[in-house]
Amino acid sequence: MFKVAVLPGDGIGPEVVNEGLKVLKAVSSTSDLRLDLKELEIYSERYLRTGKLVTVEDIEELRKFDVIFLGAIGDDRIQPGILEKGILLKLRFTFDEYVNHRPGQLWRPFGRLKRDVDFKIDVYRENTEDFYIGAGGRFNGGAGNVTIDIERELYDLSIDLQGSASNTDDYAFEIGIMSRKNIERFADYVIAEAKKIGEKKITVVDKANVLSNIYSLWREVWNEKTKQGGMEVQYMFVDAMSMALVKNPDKFRVVATPNMFGDILTDLLAEVTGGLGLAPGGNINPNGLSMFEPVHGSAPKYKGKNTINPAATILAAKMMLDNLGRKDLGQKIEDAVSRTFAKGICTQDLGGKAKTSEFGDAVAAEIRKM
Ligand code: IPM
Ligand code: MN
């Protein structure tokens, strides 16, 4: 029995999560899988009503679960950053989900490239540091003192900054931070995953030619770890990597990226595979609580229309089962999605006519037939 915390979240989150759950229930009803699902109200409505983002009680409650299944967080009525940092990133950081695994494979016939090549890329995005660490502030009027306190599972870090400029302009900054221990455990994880699939090379993304302080430490660790692990390493600057993912996606298999570049590259890769509606992701703590979600956001303008593509969330459910040690059942979901597409059933973003709920029904029906 696996205990799953379900966070439908905002916008189209509840609709896509509904389809994910529909498919998971079809898997349960045709196998020995037992899921104890509980929905939790951690989302924008509660914030608007009560001012609460993620509370101490929420964290305590979530710790009782084996895994989190999340829809999307984000709401137009709330200033950007509040929910993202207060809920989504807060959960990733609190549960120390230091790996964000975002696979991207070509889904025929939906690929967007002119060149018809097969590809399957596992992107591993570092998920707790880099420019997402939350070390920012301002020197308004050209001067100021800023104290930044960062709390992670691995460390507490306090930074004091004092600034004074030669004029009275306003200055703003956002510091990117990486720690050796975190890069080490992230690299260990990626190298182990690459070995599991028999891959001998890892493409490591950065911008070490300009952001040379932060990414020299990153490279130092990657050099050591890949050498120890007998792995080939290929470094790519993020600008060249964006181009290469469009030009030659078939040249890559395992990609490791810092947090911010990973955010950008995984949207790009999703589009290349067929669209954001097909891209799942897992926020992974290899020894703790992981969280699975689609790569896309809450898309408020599509809310309640029953038109959005639930495939990304259904595939996130697949990744969740894989992570719980049931790759056999994860594979079933993936096969069911493939068979549904093969019948020409897909939502409007992929040129089809199926409603969100019809697509979920079709995938669930395929599972029941297997
Ligand atoms: C994602 C999202 C988040 C991120 C936002 C909503 C904080 O874009 O999961 O890719 O930047 O990681
Ligand atoms: Mn993103």
Your description of this structure?
Helices cover 39% and strands 25% of the residues. A 10-stranded mixed beta sheet has the order 2-1-3-14-13-4-5-12-10-11, sandwiched between helices. Helix 1 links the parallel strand 1 and strand 2. Helix 10 packs across helix 11. The radius of gyration is 21 Å and the shape is globular. The protein starts with a strand and ends with a helix. 3-isopropylmalic acid binds next to helix 4.
Number of helices: 11
Ligand kinds: 3-isopropylmalic acid, manganese (II) ion
Going across the biggest sheet, name each strand in turn.
Answer: 2-1-3-14-13-4-5-12-10-11
* Morphology: globular
Structural class: alpha/beta
Which whole number gives the mean pLDDT?
97
Main β-sheet description: 10 strands, mixed
Rounded to the nearest angstrom, the radius of gyration is: 21 Å
Cα separation of the termini: 22 Å
How many beta-strand segments? 14
Note the run of SSEs as H and E.
Answer: EHEHHEHEEEEEEHEHEHEHEEHHH
Unreliable stretches (pLDDT < 50, length at least 5) are none
> How much of the sequence is in beta strands?
25-35%
Helix percentage: 25-40%
Please give a quick description of this structure.
The chain has 370 residues and is of the alpha/beta class. The chain has helices at 13-29, 44-50, 56-62, 82-94, 180-196, 212-228, 238-247, 259-273, 311-323, 327-342, 356-369, and strands spanning 2-9, 35-39, 67-72, 99-105, 120-126, 130-139, 143-151, 156-164, 171-177, 201-206, 232-237, 254-257, 280-284, 290-294.
